[in-house]
Amino acid sequence: MSIEIKIRKNEPIDRAIRRMKKKLERENIIKGTRAKRYFEKPCEKRRRREKVMAFTAMLRRRHAD
After folding, report:
1. Rounded distance, CA 55 to CA 62, Å?
2. Domain-embedded: residue 7
3. pLDDT 10s per residue in the chain (65 long)?
C-alpha cells in the first residue's frame, strides 16, 4: 500500500505535506499503524470495541429526539 502525492506547479512543500497527512488520515493508515505498535490481547480489543459501541449508542440515543 503506497500513498502518492504529486506536488503541483508552484505549490509550497508545506501544503503538499498537509495534503499527504490528510490523505493518510482519511485512509486510516496512521490509526492502524499506531494500533499495531504494541500487541493487544483479544479481550482488550473486545473491551475497547464494546466501549466505543456503547459510547456511539449513547450519542445516538441522546440525539434521536
Report:
1. 11
2. no
3. 678 888 999 999 999 999 999 998 898 888 888 888 999 999 999 999 999 999 999 999 999 86
